[in-house]
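Rotation project, supervised by the postdoc (A.L.). Task for the rotation student: set up a whole-complex structure prediction and record inputs and outputs verbatim in this book. Inputs entered:
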Amino acid sequence: GQQVMQIPQYQHVQEGEDFTTYCNSSTTLSNIQWYKQRPGGHPVFLIQLVKSGEVKKQKRLTFQFGEAKKNSSLHITATQTTDVGTYFCAGPRSSNTGKLIFGQGTTLQVKP
Amino acid sequence: DVKVTQSSRYLVKRTGEKVFLECVQDMDHENMFWYRQDPGLGLRLIYFSYDVKMKEKGDIPEGYSVSREKKERFSLILESASTNQTSMYLCASSRARGNQPQHFGDGTRLSIL
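Outputs recorded:
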């Protein structure tokens, strides 16, 4: 069945270091969404990418959608302690009913 | 701003009990979802509803049922709670058209003893 895989599962970085999480889909996606879940919180929508090769930036966060629309990445430059949390990618299910399939998430820890 | 409210933040129930988790959204969203979140497994879809009284099974519907009698309310029912249903349960809603982002509630951490 359709799968969305994220790596790594966990990442510990020193504050100021960069961080990247990768998302790979078993199928071509019409779009990809990214969510952030703070410790003890709920997932919050960050961004959606739609076009092949699209790159979007939100301050220190850079999101990319692969040319084949089967992979995506989130890169954080110069991490801060406020970046701590779990980052999920999600793509629409093949049935395209509004349902998403989520990756397992990458949990980021930042040491001050 | 979209508000998705789950009835309980923490809940402790006993094996065999019938458990109701309630979710209400205030943005007139057509779609509503129930997920469970377990460490290392991400968000797994239990049930989905795209309209009042309409529902679809997700990836892990066994042991669960749902009810959507009003557009704003989506209930998850554990028919006979078991210890392997101890988990974090998240409700979400979204608009139906296009690829709309999902808005999540704060979650209910359910423990079955």
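Student's summary: The mean pLDDT of chain B is 94.
Supervisor addendum: The CA atoms of residues 81 and 91 of chain B lie 18 Å apart.
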